[in-house]
Design goal:
The chain has a four-stranded antiparallel β-sheet with strand order 2-3-1-4. It has two domains: 7-38 and 170-210, no CATH class; 44-162, 2-Layer Sandwich (Alpha-Beta Plaits), CATH 3.30.70.1130. α1 (7-16) packs across α2 (18-38). Helix content is 55%, strand content 12%. By secondary structure, it is of the alpha+beta class. It has helices at 7-16, 18-38, 61-79, 82-92, 98-103, 125-146, 171-196, 203-210, and strands spanning 44-52, 105-109, 115-122, 152-156. The radius of gyration is 32 Å and the shape is elongated. This is Polysaccharide chain length determinant N-terminal domain-containing protein. Belongs to the CpsC/CapA family. Pfam families: Wzz (PF02706). It is a multi-pass membrane protein.
Length: 223
């Protein structure tokens, strides 16, 4: 006889042994908490803001807007260019390669503003602040030499007090996933129990096994 999953049977088992589901869910949360706090390296992020403000051309405002967009895009590329990263690595004596350093850098533009937000992630918040501020200062100097642009300046350098909370891993999400994993494990166990249970509990089970109609049944009574 092919054994099929009886959902009603599984639900009955879950209601009966709800405490097992709860315990495994709590164990999953505890495991996720311990693993995240003791075995996963925390990442901190420091951010600085750089203002890119090209000279205005009163004769053609549309040209100014287009030029501004092009400059923003250009500086987003320059931030992670080899020329800039080499200077950062040399100044701070970093052991990271350019590729490794670039992978920890993010460059975004706040809406349609003239502000670039540069972020650097590191396992040490102080190092993250130091790298992003150095990167911003070098970008400011590179704007003068590479682009002949003097209206690029550091608007808001990174501060250590704003970089003390790790950005990854996300403890709340990890704990939630641990709980889900524990509950899923409990359900999987009960499904296996249901599938491997060979007891004949209903007349349908008997009919499916012997392929004949059941004429009657005897109720079990306690003496």
């Amino acid at each position: 006889m092919d054994k099929t999953i009886d959902l009603s049977g599984i639900i009955t088992i879950l209601k009966r042994f709800w405490w097992v589901v709860a315990i495994l869910g709590i164990m999953g949360m505890a495991t996720a908490f311990v693993y995240t706090n003791h075995f996963v390296e925390k990442q901190y992020e420091a951010t600085s803001q750089v203002l890119v403000k090209p000279e205005k051309n009163e004769d053609n405002r549309n040209f100014d807007v287009q030029l501004n967009k092009q400059l923003i895009s250009t500086y987003q590329v320059i931030v992670t260019s080899g020329s800039v990263l080499n200077q950062v690595r040399d100044e701070l004596n970093l052991a990271d390669s350019n590729k490794e350093l670039a992978s920890r850098i993010t460059v975004t533009n706040e809406g349609s503003s003239q502000v670039l937000v540069i972020g650097v992630q590191d396992t040490d918040p102080e190092q993250a602040v130091l790298v992003v501020n150095t990167l911003s200062e070098i970008l400011q100097e590179e704007a003068k030499t590479m682009m002949d642009e003097k209206n690029v300046r550091v608007l808001s350098p990174a501060e250590l007090e704003n970089s003390q909370v790790p950005v990854s891993p996300n403890l709340k999400i990890t704990i939630l996933l641990g709980f889900i994993a524990g509950v899923t494990l409990a359900i999987a166990i009960f499904v296996i129990i249901e599938l491997t249970n060979t007891k004949l509990r209903t007349r349908e089970d008997v009919e499916a096994l012997v392929d004949i109609q059941v004429l009657g049944s005897i109720e079990r009574r306690k003496l």
